[in-house]
Write a structure and sequence with these properties.
About 80% of the residues lie in helices and about 0% in strands. It is mainly alpha-helical and about 220 residues long. The protein folds into three domains: about 1-95, no CATH class; about 95-140; about 140-220, no CATH class. Helix 1 packs across helix 2 and helix 2 (about 25-70) packs antiparallel against helix 3. The termini are close together.
């Protein structure tokens, strides 16, 4: 059994979290609150070191030094540096009664800029890449299995699109195509759920290895 205080603390918190499997209890709530508090504190420090300090405080300080040494010629650049900081502060105006409307200005600019950046990226990753993934198997056919794989992908694509086509009643041949699409979707959701379960099991195995190895020393 380890004599390291850090390992004992980690083991206690691990067991405290897993105690929820029995029922909700004060030990679990303490570990949960500690995790949330530490996570928020860590994120605040990271946000200050990676955003506030290099993108707000340091540029403003640099421009102030430039203005103090070169006169009024640096004031326009200082203003351009201060504007994003002011817009960021507007976000916190929601907590001040009567000033909440200022946050809408910052949110509108943030959402507009975010949409302008994310729409082309999502178009590239979720549409164009998917189209490429559907067409590429037909360009790389070297055997009968490649032909079967390409046709299988094509049939699955058409069936799933048919299922989500609600402008036509799902009856007759089209209804059978839509039902085939549900089978493809169920296989996809099942594989996704299985992957999620395996990821959680791998986390559990890691914790058990820590408890039985690093803490108790029962395994090496």
């Amino acid at each position: 059994m380890s004599g390291d205080l850090g390992i004992w603390l980690a083991a206690f918190l691990t067991l405290a979290i897993y105690s929820f499997l029995y029922r909700d209890n004060p030990v679990y709530r303490f570990a949960e609150s500690l995790l949330i508090g530490v996570s928020v504190g860590f994120l605040l420090v990271v946000a200050f070191d990676t955003t506030i300090l290099p993108k707000a405080l340091e540029p403003i300080a640099a421009q102030i030094r430039y203005v103090s040494s070169n006169g009024a010629s640096g004031i326009p650049m200082l203003i351009w540096v201060i504007i994003p900081v002011v817009l960021g502060l507007f976000m916190f105006a929601r907590f001040v009664p009567g000033w909440a409307w200022l946050s809408r200005i910052a949110l509108a600019l943030y959402i507009g800029f975010g949409a302008g950046v994310s729409i082309p990226a999502n178009m590239q990753s979720y549409i164009l890449k998917q189209i490429e993934g559907t067409i590429r198997p037909f360009l790389e056919i070297h055997s009968a299995w490649d032909i079967f794989s390409a046709l299988f992908i094509l049939v699955g694509l058409i069936a799933v699109i048919g299922y989500f086509f609600f402008s036509k009643a799902h009856t007759g041949n089209f209804g059978r195509l839509a039902r085939l699409g549900t089978w493809f979707l169920m296989v996809f959701f099942g594989a996704t759920f299985g992957y999620t379960v395996m990821a959680r099991i791998s986390l559990l195995i890691g914790r058990l290895q820590f408890l039985l190895g690093d803490w108790l020393g029962l395994i090496s």
